[in-house]
Design a protein that fits this description.
Structural class of chain A: alpha/beta
CATH topology of one domain in chain A: Rossmann fold
Oligomer: heterodimer
Strand order of the largest sheet of chain B: 3-2-4-5-7-6-12
Structural class of chain B: alpha/beta
CATH architecture of one domain in chain A: 3-Layer(aba) Sandwich
CATH class of the largest domain in chain B: Alpha Beta
Strand order of the largest sheet of chain A: 2-1-3-4-8-7
Number of helices of chain B: 12
Radius of gyration of chain B: 20 Å
CATH class of one domain in chain A: Alpha Beta
Shape of chain A: globular
Strand content of chain B: 15-25%
Helix content of chain A: 40-55%
CATH superfamily of one domain in chain A: Thiamin diphosphate (ThDP)-binding fold, Pyr/PP domains
Distance between the termini of chain A: 54 Å
Strand content of chain A: 5-15%
CATH topology of the largest domain in chain B: Rossmann fold
Largest sheet of chain B: 7 strands, mixed
Number of strands of chain B: 14
Order of helices and strands of chain B: EHEHEHEHHEHEHEEEEHEEHEHEHH
Amino acid sequence: MSAPEARRVESPTAPERGEPAARDYLDAYARMVVIREFEQTIHRLFLKGEVHGTTHLSAGQEAIPVGVCMALAPDDYASGTYRGHGHALAKGTAPEALAAEMLGRATGVCGGRAGSMNVVDLEHGLVGCFGIVGGSIAAATGAALSGKREGRVSVAFFGDGATNQAYFHECLNFAKVLELPVIFVCENNFYGEFTPMLRVTGGGEIAARAGAYGIPFEVVDGNDLWAVRAAAAGAVERARSGAGPTMLECQTYRHFGHSKSDPARYRPSEELERWLERDPLTVARRRLLAEGVSEADVEAVETEAQGEMERAAEAALAAPYPDPHERPATEFKP
Amino acid sequence: MSAERGSSPGQLEFRVAIRDAIAEELERDPSVVFFGEDVAAEQGGVFAVTPGLAERFGADRVFDTPISELALAGAAFGAAATGMRPVIEIMFGDFMALPMDSLVNQAAKLWYVSGEQGSAPLVVRSAVGAGGRFGAMHSQSPGTWFQGIPGIKVVAPSSPGDAKGLLKAAIRDDNPVLFLEHKRLYSIKGPEPEHEVLPIGEAAVVREGRDLTIVSISKGVRDALQAADTLAGDGLDVEVVDLRSLRPLDSATVLASVARTNRLLAVEEGPRTGGWATGLLGVVSERGLHDLDDAWIVATEETPIPYSPTLEDPFLPSAETIVESVRGRLGTGVETAA
């Protein structure tokens, strides 16, 4: 028996949804800028001692959550990882509520109980971000059980390292057997913590692993907003039409180390340079201008996004810490 | 009421009580679904608890899954977080080691960590307990593995009536609930529950007495009741408390009982170290020391559960070992309270 072939995802010219207008991409670019500004702000605030514990920054990977969420309806479901600030912001979490959460403030999206790694925003369909590698895959698979009833789709964001977890293999099989409307989005940034992906990935292929389960898959340039959105739109269509799960391997690179304690010296400098030239923000900006968006319009959304993040950080810094005596925590939902 | 109840009133079989509870909740609430390994098969799972449910409710509500405990529990979490009420079956309690991450780190934490945005109303049913010659990996009682996890309830009924009322409560509960069914109880019969739903977290005094409180849960309660009958012949008036859940732990009922009897024996089917019985004696020591003349534990040895009948039988607590332990500790014909 031959393995299922990697099916090309249809080009994003679905009759109802259609190719987004340049304005939509400009808005999406603005969201990417917000995520970049968010990560840089959190980085600065961490060094000042305002962000506690650890954080995992997603700078360099912004096109993936933003491109995928362009293809989603607002009430579709998603789950993210401990490198999940971009997942939350792309899904609709307000920068101020997310920043306040990082700072452990009462106005945080989870009231300061979650912190950087475990953000939940059910109002925006974010079932959770999971501090343990692979957890997001199961959460989105389960949300797809609800989605199947409701006509909603579900997206699992996870990294290359998660594809070596039981969660990945069990859930891909589970989702295929039940034909669940779930999209498995692997953000392959080529390093699992400090270890190169190829050194710990048998067979060296990630997307193709989905083929073993009969799931259509595609390798996507994860630094190209247009490519990500197109692939996601095809997968969303397939899910909504009842054709089951799809796997997208979006190749990308993180600008920072794995976590706050990692200067990422294990990465060759020429490799980093090469990826920085393909910074998803640069790629998107260039494409917007090539598509006829004016430099002034691009600068305007950049300025607005930066201002939005500055205001969010100021508000978060001014917010109170949660008062442990104000309201007794309950172990169980009453 | 279920149209397909297999027993006459007063003769409710434990496995049928569970089947009826699931069926009635599937009937009552469209957000309830039931899935697991072989649960939709004709036999209705390896312990024949759920035959007929798939045919009655259809493949959208009751379905089989791959042998993937982690995916099973993880999918239940994701479904529960988005508005469904999944009931899943983990075939043997021992297999609970596989979905531990999803249950402990996802389901149990959603309510608190999300800042109370939502919770994970799921039920994990599982067959637990020893005595069936199933060996070390199909006989454990994993309730204590979870007892120390805030955010998850651990329920283990001792009678068919309790099983039905507690399972219905578990399915309606907005929090994750582990529902542990002792294999040696599946075929026992008993009366229908008096109330449709039995609140989770309330222990029951199932036999009143003045001289000694024996606390247990699940099958241990039946052993304790049998032992109490024998000990009555010694002139010892034994009170038996059924915890019914390990978390929440109804220590108030235990403390009130100990205040009457001044003696406490906790009977646990599991190792003494790290077990619930040790924790219970800790609570009673901390809060009820003034009422306490004696307190001890009957539990298992600190090894895995053996297979051979000549090894397994003496390894486990039973009515006989309880009687022996009480007689040894208190002496036959202990002076009773006036």
